[in-house]
Amino acid sequence: MPRATLLPQRRKVYSLLEQALARAGKVGIATFVMRQHEYLVALKAENGLLTLHTLLWADEIRDPQKEIDSLPGKAKASDKERSPPWR
Description:
alpha+beta; 3 helices; 3-stranded antiparallel beta sheet; 28% strand
């Protein structure tokens, strides 16, 4: 997978953003454009790195009921199956 590198003058800004997200225990939601396509992403601080995770827009999510003819129904679980194995 190609790796993006930052210009030296931008490193401090991204470092501060990574530290702020890590300290707050939160993620940031953003958009960016690459190759004439706009992406929805989550910015996350992970092990000292600022990572981007692509997300889907609402209109990109398909309805399974319309896509798959016969979806299985809901299964019932017994009390034994729902109880932890160490009991």
